[in-house]
Amino acid sequence: MSDKARLVVMISGNGSNLQAIIDAVEAGALPAQIVCVVSNKAKAYGLVRAEKHQIPTAVLSRKKGVSRAVYDAELGHFVANFQPDWVVLAGWMLVLSLEFLRFFPNRVINLHPALPGQFPGTHAIERAFAAYQRGELSQTGIMVHLVPDEGIDDGPVLATRTVPILPHDTLDSLEERTHATEHQLLVDVLRRLIQGVIDVPL
Ligand code: GAR
Fold first, then answer.
1. 106: CB partners within 8 A, 6+ apart
2. CA-nearest residue, atom 17 of ligand 1
3. In the prediction, which pLDDT does 1 show?
4. Is-catalytic flag, 168?
5. pLDDT tens for residues 188-198?
6. Is the entire prediction scored with pTM above 0.85?
7. pLDDT above 60: residue 177
8. What integer pLDDT is reported at residue 176 of this predicted model?
9. What is the pLDDT of residue 93?
10. How far apart are CA 69 and CA 122, in angstroms?
11. Contact (Cβ atoms closer than 8 angstroms) between residue 38 and residue 79
12. First-last CA distance in the chain
């Protein structure tokens, strides 16, 4: 029996945050095993990253004509079979309904590249940069939160980090700084959750 936390990581794209988790696990910095990487996109590069490390992968896309409720319930059953301690949304870009979430109360965490209440949804970094250029904000940030319901990038906040926006920044440089901050924070929050330092009721 392993005493390592079982993680299912859900992705839709590049998977650089998945890579950060893989690297932390392999370095012995995170007492966890990734039991499956699930993508809703067959071409997500994160699948290649997982396969390079012999991590099981699955692609579950929502097919035409299948309702969201049915898709989410099937996804929930599929993920539940892996008996995860934590379900990590690391760039998973579909909103999950209670048909999925009811399997994992207080056990789904989401990473979002903005501070709580700011820029929910897609292209958050781009929208923060545009707001900076309009003089509306001087910094942005990232957060990790629990996913209790269908609220988009919303839920009890586990941790945040601010990310400064510098005068010479381009969108690329801000994205790079934001992702580097995410890679650290996501692993840090997972470690603290697994060690019980952050207390989340079961
Ligand atoms: C990350 O920036 C993550 O915060 C964001 O998708 C990116 C995935 O990058 N998630 C959201 O915007 C959720 N609304 P990655 O595939 O390289 O890890």
1. 146, 148, 200, 201, 202
2. 16
3. 45
4. no
5. 999 999 999 99
6. yes
7. yes
8. 98
9. 95
10. 22
11. yes
12. 21
Q: Which of 113, 110, 131, 132 is nearest to 122 (CA)?
A: 113
66-93 pLDDT tens trace: 999 999 999 999 999 999 999 999 999 9
Query: How far does residue 148's CA lie from ligand 1's centre (Å)?
Result: 19
Residues with CB under 6 A from ligand 1: 11, 13-17, 46, 90-91, 111-113, 124, 153, 179, 182
Q: From atom 6 of ligand 1, which residue's Cα is the shortest distance away?
A: 91
Backbone angles phi, psi at 172, to 5 degrees: -60, -45
Q: What six digits make up the tokens of 148?
A: 């209790």
Single-letter residue type at 143: M
- Output the CA 126–ligand 1 centroid distance in Å: 12
- Give the count of beta carbons closer than 10 Å to the beta carbon of residue 30: 23
Residue of 112, 145, 179, 183 marked catalytic: 112
Residues in the chain: 202
Report the greatest alpha carbon distance in the chain.
Answer: 55
Taking the C-alpha atoms of residue 58 and residue 48, their distance in angstroms, rounded to an integer, is: 11
Whose CA is closest to 14, among 55, 53, 48?
48
Pocket test residue of 22, 112, 174 for ligand 1, highest count of atoms within 8 A of CB: 112
